[in-house]
Amino acid sequence: MPNKSPAQICILEDNPQRHATMRDCLDDRFHQYKAVFFNDAALMIEHLREHLSEVIAIGLDHDLELIPNGKGKPTDPGTGRQVANFLAELPPTCPVVIHSTNSAAAKGMEMLLDEKGWTTYLVHPWGDLKWIGTEWLPTLRKALLRGLKSRAPTAG
C-alpha cells in the first residue's frame, strides 16, 4: 500500500519575520499538517502543479521583494497574483487565505478567485507581526475547518 503524503498548507510569504511567526503558529496549532513556504510565485506554482491534491489550504501574500542572487542583479519572485491566476484556471480544491498590505491587489486576487468558485478569506496585516496570531491564524483555522468539512466523504 503506498504511503499517503501528509496534507499540506502552502504559503507564499517572503518576509522572514512573518514566515517564522507563521511557521511557529502552524507548528503549535496545526502540527499534523505539513507547512510548505515559498518566497517565489513560480516555485509555488510548480509545487502546486504536482501537489495540489494534497493541499488543504493556501496562503497568499501579494507583493514579494526582489531576491538577491549575489551577482548584482536580483531575481524577481513575481507576485501572489500570478499564483491566483494559476489557481483561477483550475477547479477549486481548498480555501485560500490572502494576506497583503497591498489592499487593492489583495482585493483583486480575492475577486478573481471568488469569481472562479474558490473560497477566499482576506486578512489585512497590521501591528508588525501581531496580526498573525490574532487575525491570520484564526482565519486560517476557520478556512481549514470549512475546507476539511467540505472534503469529508458523505454517507450514502
General description of the model:
- This protein has helices spanning about 15-30, 40-50, 80-90, 105-115, 130-150, and strands at about 10, 35-40, 55-60, 95-100, 120-125.
- It has a five-stranded parallel β-sheet with strand order 2-1-3-4-5, sandwiched between helices.
- The protein has about 160 residues and is α/β, with parallel strands linked by helices.
- It contains five helices and five strands, in the order βαβαβαβαβα.
- It has one domain: Rossmann fold.
- Helix 2 packs parallel to helix 3 and helix 3 packs parallel to helix 4.
- Residues about 150-155 have low confidence and may be disordered.
Break the fold down into its secondary structure elements and pairings.
Layout: E1 8-12, H1 16-29, E2 34-38, H2 41-51, E3 55-60, H3 80-88, E4 96-99, H4 103-115, E5 120-123, H5 130-151
Parallel strand pairs: 1-2, 1-3, 3-4, 4-5
Helix pairs in contact: 2-3, 3-4
- Spatial order of strands in the largest sheet: 2-1-3-4-5
Give the low-pLDDT segments. Answer: 152-156
- The name of the CATH topology is Rossmann fold
Q: Share of helix among residues?
A: 40-55%
Could you state the CATH homologous superfamily?
A: Response regulator
Write down how many β-strands occur, each being a DSSP E stretch of 2 or more residues: 5
